[in-house]
């Protein structure tokens, strides 16, 4: 999953990027409204963490412009303002949630997880597909209850597919959502990560859809099980 952070406080921006990266996301960042607007308008983000008080272009204007242009990614607003009218203005502009400064980083992470779950139609922080379970809170993956150690890229790939369970996801879409802006993108690496995932999970839940991409689905019961 790929996240955009738009925050003009460089220290806070760095802390947010570090926390989100450690949580398993690919993260891009901007420090003013114009750059943030451009990135959100040209890159396919799964969620945005957006400060209201930005130079060049304020956060409300950035958000209103995105929504007018049909950009529907979930947006979490950051605000240092206590007035309820500012929070209402943000929600009316199209924000999905907000958190007031100062905040605990865990709260931001929890709200981002919730936005991603809701956007994908999931209610729980734990997602299941056959014997595979992925906990978005702990970034922990188990198969039949046994912990499986994944690299950061393997986890991002599995998480994106699990969030879009039952849908065919193209290689291009995976590349756009798994890597940050500075990563040397190569769609061939997706095949490598899929192969590694299949081997580590030891279960046939990732299907290659020829000419289209990949889909993750719970394995069908075998014939003998069906007969029973």
TrEMBL record:
<feature type="domain" description="OmpR/PhoB-type">
    <location>
        <begin position="124"/>
        <end position="218"/>
    </location>
</feature>
<dbReference type="InterPro" id="IPR039420">
    <property type="entry name" value="WalR-like"/>
</dbReference>
<dbReference type="GO" id="GO:0006355">
    <property type="term" value="P:regulation of DNA-templated transcription"/>
</dbReference>
<dbReference type="GO" id="GO:0000976">
    <property type="term" value="F:transcription cis-regulatory region binding"/>
</dbReference>
<dbReference type="GO" id="GO:0000156">
    <property type="term" value="F:phosphorelay response regulator activity"/>
</dbReference>
<dbReference type="InterPro" id="IPR036388">
    <property type="entry name" value="WH-like_DNA-bd_sf"/>
</dbReference>
<keyword id="KW-0902">Two-component regulatory system</keyword>
<dbReference type="InterPro" id="IPR016032">
    <property type="entry name" value="Sig_transdc_resp-reg_C-effctor"/>
</dbReference>
<dbReference type="InterPro" id="IPR011006">
    <property type="entry name" value="CheY-like_superfamily"/>
</dbReference>
<feature type="domain" description="Response regulatory">
    <location>
        <begin position="2"/>
        <end position="116"/>
    </location>
</feature>
<keyword id="KW-0805">Transcription regulation</keyword>
<dbReference type="GO" id="GO:0032993">
    <property type="term" value="C:protein-DNA complex"/>
</dbReference>
<dbReference type="InterPro" id="IPR001789">
    <property type="entry name" value="Sig_transdc_resp-reg_receiver"/>
</dbReference>
<protein>
    <submittedName>
        <fullName>Response regulator transcription factor</fullName>
    </submittedName>
</protein>
<dbReference type="Pfam" id="PF00486">
    <property type="entry name" value="Trans_reg_C"/>
</dbReference>
<keyword id="KW-0597">Phosphoprotein</keyword>
<feature type="DNA-binding region" description="OmpR/PhoB-type">
    <location>
        <begin position="124"/>
        <end position="218"/>
    </location>
</feature>
<keyword id="KW-0804">Transcription</keyword>
<dbReference type="Pfam" id="PF00072">
    <property type="entry name" value="Response_reg"/>
</dbReference>
<dbReference type="InterPro" id="IPR001867">
    <property type="entry name" value="OmpR/PhoB-type_DNA-bd"/>
</dbReference>
<keyword id="KW-0238">DNA-binding</keyword>
<dbReference type="GO" id="GO:0005829">
    <property type="term" value="C:cytosol"/>
</dbReference>
<feature type="modified residue" description="4-aspartylphosphate">
    <location>
        <position position="51"/>
    </location>
</feature>
